[in-house]
Every structure is written in C-alpha cells, then in structure tokens.
Amino acid sequence: MARDRAQTETYGRPIRRMLVGILVVFMLAIFLIWRIDSPRVERLRAQITDAILPNMDWAMAPVTGISEMIANFQSYQRLYEQNQELRSELQEMRVWQEAALQLDQRNARLLDLNKVRLDPQLTWVTGVVTADSGSPFHQSVLLNVGERDWITDGWAAMDGLGLVGRISGVGNRSSRVLLLTDSNSRIPITILPSGQRALLAGDNTPAPAIELLDKPDLVRPGDRVVSSGDGGVFPADLLIGQITESPGGRLRVLLAADYERLEFLRVIRLHEAPALTDPGGLVVTSDPATENAPQEETDDTAATTGDDNG
Known about the structure:
By secondary structure, the protein is α+β, with helices and mostly antiparallel strands. It is built from four helices and twelve strands, in the order αααββββββββββββα. A hairpin with a 4-residue loop joins strand 4 and strand 5 (175-179).
C-alpha cells in the first residue's frame, strides 16, 4: 500500500510540473500576442476572439434569463393595470346599457299609449306611476297627476293595451288609481259579439270574475270584453280583455293591460253632457210649416176685415 503511494508520487510530481509549465508558457504566449502591435497579430487576435466569444453564451444565459423575467413581470403588471381599466370601463358601459334599456322601454310604453285608438271626442292626461300599494288586499297605484291637471274621481285609467282601473282619490299633485283586480272594483261591461251585459268584479286575483250575467250560455272563452258605459262611470267600448274560464267553471276576464309593467297611465277625461232644461229643444211639438200657415191666414183675415170695415 505504501509502495503504491510512493510510485504514484514518483510519476505524478513530474506530470504536474510539466502541466504547470505548459500553462505558464501558454499564458506568456497569450500575453505576448496581446502586447504585439502588428496587423497580422491583430488579425490573429480577432480570429481568436471570434472563436471564443460565441462559446461564452452559456455564461450570459443567467443574466439574459433574469432580464427576460424582469421584462415579463413588467409586461404582466401593465397587462394587469390595463385589465383593471377595462373592467372599470365595462362596468360603466353596463350601467349605461341598463339606462339605455330602461329609456327604450319607457319610450316603447309611451309609443304604445300613442297607438291606443280612442273616441276623438275624448281627451286624456298621461301620468307616471310613482308608487304601488304592494298589498294583496288593496291593489292600487299612484300617479303624478292630480287636481292641478283637472283630474276627477271616477275617471278611467288605461295603459298602452287596455283599461287598468279608475281614479279613486285625488290630491293636488297626485291621484290614486284603483285597479280592476281590487276587491272594491265593480264596473259594467259588455261581452262581444253576443252583446251580453254583466258586471266585472275584482277579487284580488289577476283575472277578475264576471257577475250578474243573464245568459252565460251565449258567452265563450276568447270573447272580447269592453266597457259598456252604463251609469256614466266609464266611456263605452274601452278594451278590458277577453273571457277565460277558471278550473272551477267560473267565467273570468283575462285583462289586456300589462299589470307587471305599469309605468305610464292615460287618464281619460269624461266630459258630462249638459243638462237639458228646455224640453222644446229635444221634442218638436209641431211642424214649423204648419205653424206659419195659420198665422198667414190670420193676417189675411185681418186684412180682409179691415177692408170691410173701411
């Protein structure tokens, strides 16, 4: 064991010395080459540099990787900031979109009101629904029109499709509309095409019931229901809805008005006819031609009598 170690030292020591000497000579040669100022040596130095430097990319790889990571992080930060800005703008656009949709719906409601065909002799006032009773036992809404707009109790209120209810309570700047579905609502109706007269009675359900119908056999589901105008409560021929039959067999009215979206209501002004104080304006007692004939005959008789006396 000791002999093998001695032999290794005997052969290893000269080899180390030889390698150190070669390394020293190589470094001296490089030093001398870099110190010589000659065109040929300069070209040699350039060739050596071109051969060595590309192989040094591995040494620059960590630095290059770190630089790319920093650049990517900065880019990610910019993308995050842009994403937050786009989210904020998208939220604002959604708010504007919702406002535009609401305006479009309000415009559609107003256009529907303008399309309602009414008697040309009737006038109306359009009001905005400001509040809902929200009670299952009392169904009514508030309008922003009142006495200042010459609103009177009992006048009919319609949406863009059909009759909604009647005015029941008027303030200076507001009025309450009692809906047809309220249990206190009773209005006379006409069922077409049979022409049957009946009473529409609200019972706090979406489809009010029909009462006091003389001939139910003449009425069929799908028949049109309009106001009759009896009693001077409502103008005649205002659309209310159509006949439907409940599971129990009772006739009800499927209302034409959209009670889920009451935003604008049109209050119909009902102008009362002037009272007749002179019956002669309505009843003609005799023909004017026959009235003038006796008068003329009397005048002729008076003239003849005057001549005779003369």
